[in-house]
Design goal:
The chain is mainly β and about 290 residues long. About 0% of the residues lie in helices and about 40% in strands. Strand 1 and strand 2 form a beta hairpin. The mean pLDDT is about 85.
Length: about 290
């Protein structure tokens, strides 16, 4: 959403980049048809409108299918300075190609933004000059850096970030946290429980209370059928399952009300009658949920 123009917002897709509207959804423009980044980067994994200048958008692009399993070796970070009409790639010289996802530190200087990126196959990276140059920040991740898939910044404490590991069913998964802007990472060994590691599918930090952290994951060896959405009320130390759906792709907390939480779950590659996938809403911080599919 454009914070300066409520009627302007953007929708990212996994196959045709994204659409934008400037009339509150009455009509949409497919930006992909006007100025796509270098093919085959046609999927959006994350997108941020700069609150200091809404004409500037930072986005992580990847090939179609790279959200999950295909073309994980390709992708990049791009910037637009004209509301998404044209794009330029950031840091191609020292940010390795790979399916990536970014997090923007909005407290950083608008003239030299701090941006973090998790690049699949390589690990976590950071720029403090708006994407001009990037440095690897993988201390503490060990070999898990190769499966860095999800990244979330604490909006209240921008030196705090969470990094999700997704082995795509080939390893043990896990969730990491940094409290020093990526200089070092520590594994959250109780996610989702002591001695158990899940592949991470999504992460959210409550913008109203940094102690409330949400993470979704599933058992790497269970083909996506075992897992759920978990909540921590102490900044990631302890976790409780709050939604028994194994494939929660996204979770968002209302920016002004911690009790209102939204989650989206989907089917795995084939149908499972035990999954009631769809759009979920909780009005009590995740204790109960209502599905809204119509």
């Amino acid at each position: 959403f454009d914070p300066a123009t409520p009627g302007r917002f953007y929708i990212g897709y996994e196959d045709v980049l994204f659409f934008k509207t400037e009339d509150d959804g009455q009509s949409y423009k497919n930006v992909y048809t006007d100025s796509p980044p270098e093919d085959p980067n046609d999927a959006i994994t994350a997108m941020f409108v700069d609150p200091a200048n809404p004409a500037i958008i930072y986005a992580s692009f990847a090939p179609q299918g790279a959200m999950e399993y295909e073309d994980l070796t390709k992708g990049g970070v791009f910037k637009s300075e004209d509301y998404g009409d044209t794009w330029s790639q950031l840091g191609a010289a020292d940010l390795p190609a790979g399916r990536n996802i970014i997090a923007l530190d909005i407290s950083s200087s608008p003239s030299s933004r701090t941006i973090y990126a998790a690049v699949y196959g390589h690990g976590a990276y950071k720029t403090t000059n708006g994407g001009g140059s990037w440095s690897a920040i993988n201390t503490g991740l060990g070999s898990d850096k190769n499966y860095a898939a999800w990244l979330k910044i604490d909006p209240n404490q921008p030196q705090y970030l969470y990094l999700g590991i997704d082995t795509k069913g080939t390893g043990t998964g896990g969730l990491y946290k940094t409290t020093d802007g990526g200089s070092s990472w520590s594994k959250l060994n109780n996610f989702p429980d002591a001695g158990v590691d899940y592949d991470v599918l999504s992460i959210e930090v409550d913008p109203n209370n940094s102690n409330y952290v949400y993470a979704a994951g599933n058992v790497p060896s269970a083909a996506g059928y075992e897992g759920g959405l978990y909540k921590s009320t102490d900044g990631g130390t302890g976790w409780t399952e709050i939604l028994d759906e194994p494939w929660v792709n996204d979770v968002t907390v209302h920016p002004e009300n911690s009790q209102v939480v939204y989650a989206v779950s989907s089917q795995w590659w084939d149908y499972s009658p035990s999954q009631s996938c769809g759009f979920y809403k909780s009005s009590d911080g995740g204790s109960t949920w209502t599905i809204h599919n119509q």
